[in-house]
Amino acid sequence: MSDDMNHLNFSQRMGLVSVVKAQIDNIDLQLQNSLWNVLTTKFLNCYESRTPAFSSWITYSNFKKFTELLYSDFYKAPVDTIPIHWKEFVDSFRKAFYKMSWHQTYSLIEFIVQVNYLGTRQALIEGFNRALVRENSAYRFVNGLLTPITSKDEIGEIERAITDSDQHAGVRTHIQTSLRFLTDKQNPDYRNSIKESISAVESLAKKLVGDEKATLGQALKVLEKHHNLHPSLKIAFSALYGYTNDASGIRHSLMDNESALTQADARFMLICCSAFINFAIDSTKI
To answer: Of the CATH numbers 1.10.1760, 1.20.120, 3.20.20, 2.30.30, which one belongs to the domain with range 152-283?
Structure first.
């Protein structure tokens, strides 16, 4: 059974109940509840008091630092307004959570994942991703960032490109930067995301052929000759590179009258370039 079908219940698979459309710029109550449940079971339930006599006081608990980070870095609120008691904090936190817009909700859970408080990052990512799949969200956590990608294979290509390019720092930085431009939920920058994706490929190709001054086209020729790069792949990436460099392309044209770039454009380029990076690294391993 495909991944797309695994999260459907019997009624949905049989067509007896309609399947919820992909949640792109909204979060319905079921998804909201699911995300809150992950926060509760994988994170908030980790609360422990360090002083039994003051078990409800946040100051004497393992969550003191987190509440301060939440108020100062996410809410941008005075830390002296943090509730004294844990139950009051959770009630306040819950009320704020359910009042947030869809993108604020995603920003919040992304913030908590990145903080990795008490080492909960991986458990939260796994729990959130299960909820996002089940409730048909258009977003998934990739490298700690919520990304508009729904396929497990696509996620795998990007994460692997970031991980496997450790020895090529520039490549990793370009992919991570592309991902950040793409995943900015309030001000996504698709143009610069595409630039960073193609720059990652360009950077890797130069390093693999040992010539920092080489163009991508020249590097692809060397990869084809010495590292078994298939001619069809060379043609495909040469064409993509040409698209970003021609007179009306991404790098050279910032004119107002050009066609607007979309999330789909940036998403495709990020996935495609990540896949090429993985292929190139694999094909040049000794």
So the answer is: 1.20.120
CA–CA separation, 91 and 58 (whole Å)? 13
CA distance 159 to 164: 9
- Alpha carbons 284 and 164: distance in angstroms, whole number: 13
Phi, psi of 78 (to 5 degrees): -65, 135
Q: Would you kindly state where each structural domain of the chain is located, as residue ranges?
A: 20-138, 152-283
Per-residue tens of pLDDT for the chain, all 286 residues: 444 445 556 555 545 444 455 677 889 999 999 999 999 999 999 999 999 899 999 999 999 999 999 999 999 999 999 999 999 999 999 999 999 999 999 999 999 999 999 999 999 999 999 999 888 888 999 989 998 876 777 888 888 888 877 677 788 889 989 988 988 877 888 889 988 998 888 888 888 778 888 777 777 777 777 777 777 777 877 776 666 665 455 554 443 434 578 888 888 889 888 888 888 787 776 5
Q: Supply the pTM of this predicted model.
A: 0.69
- For residue 68, the number of C-alpha atoms closer than 13 Å in the C-beta half-sphere is 8
Q: How far is CA 260 from CA 171, 248, 256, in A?
A: 27, 12, 9
* Distance separating alpha carbons of residues 46 and 107, to the nearest angstrom: 21
Angle subtended by helix axes 169-183 and 190-209, to nearest 10: 170
